[in-house]
Design goal:
The structure is a homodimer. Chain A is mainly alpha-helical and about 150 residues long. Chain A has a single domain, classed as Orthogonal Bundle (Arc Repressor Mutant, subunit A). Helix content of chain A is about 55%, strand content about 5%. Chain A has six helices and two strands, in the order H-H-H-E-E-H-H-H. In chain A, strands 1-2 form a two-stranded antiparallel ribbon. In chain A, helix 2 packs across helix 3. Chain A is elongated. The interface between A and B is large, with 59 and 59 residues. Chain B binds a DNA duplex (30 and 30 nucleotides) through helix 3.
Chain lengths: ~150, ~150
Amino acid sequence: MQISSRFTIALHIFTCVDVFQNQYKVTSDFLAGSIRTNPVIIRKILAQLKHAGLISVARGTGGISLTRALSEISFYDVYEAVEAVEAGKLFHFHESPNPECPVGRNIHRLLDEKLLAVQTAMEQELRRYTLSDLRSEMTELLDQEC
Amino acid sequence: MQISSRFTIALHIFTCVDVFQNQYKVTSDFLAGSIRTNPVIIRKILAQLKHAGLISVARGTGGISLTRALSEISFYDVYEAVEAVEAGKLFHFHESPNPECPVGRNIHRLLDEKLLAVQTAMEQELRRYTLSDLRSEMTELLDQEC
DNA sequence: TTTGATGTAACAATTGACATTACAACAATA
DNA sequence: TATTGTTGTAATGTCAATTGTTACATCAAA
């Protein structure tokens, strides 16, 4: 199974807001055009980002603004905000092993610790990247394009 | 989204084979009893483990045997064998960003490298654990139980 | 030949992701 | 104040993947 595209879409959204905010009013329609999906998909993700305190969305008039500097928002913050994976539950367990079997009644406990370490390793790596990393590399690329 | 329970089921299977192989003939029915699922689910996973060369399954007579020492099988080997996640594709991308948008046509490339690093961090951690770690902790637990 | 396994196809049930339509609520402005 | 363009959200549809189930051919040993 894969981690929801809400995560990569959210990263796309932040990049667009940063790149275009001085030229255009960045609305859910505008974003949907760049991402090529439905505006409602965007609005749902915006609602999650707003709820996590990463952005504010102007109702009525439209437009998105950041509530923190890009350098203060890590990939992990975004990942968590869009609930790409429910907290602490990257791995799916078979839920009802047989309690009468010595292995069955102990396996979950034994695996939990190790699999949590695996998940934590991934999340730590996500914390290493910030949206300003993304921004600087994107502007570099765009400069080359012209 | 979560990583398929095939992975934790496979770990459960290995533990059962190790713990019970001298007492019982470990069949898909036996395993299904401990894991509390359908024997066919077990057989499908066994087929994947066999295909990866981690076990051999005796057709006709029944029973499972390992083709390597437990210490030579890492969690990653199992994870890969059951195709818990298609190779290199932990993160789901929105597949058709707009090529006419400067951000749209560059975002995928920019993210690929970073998200691959995240995935690799997770996989490296999976390589740190072997089935013999699991075995020794399980026997420890079972000794305490008696 | 019988017995108890595995291998596998076919299909059903469930779940979650993603897409789409529709419309109320809202804020600026003409 | 009426209009306009936007957000928020409910309702519904579609699709794919996971997991579960039944059925049965194939197989190896006793």
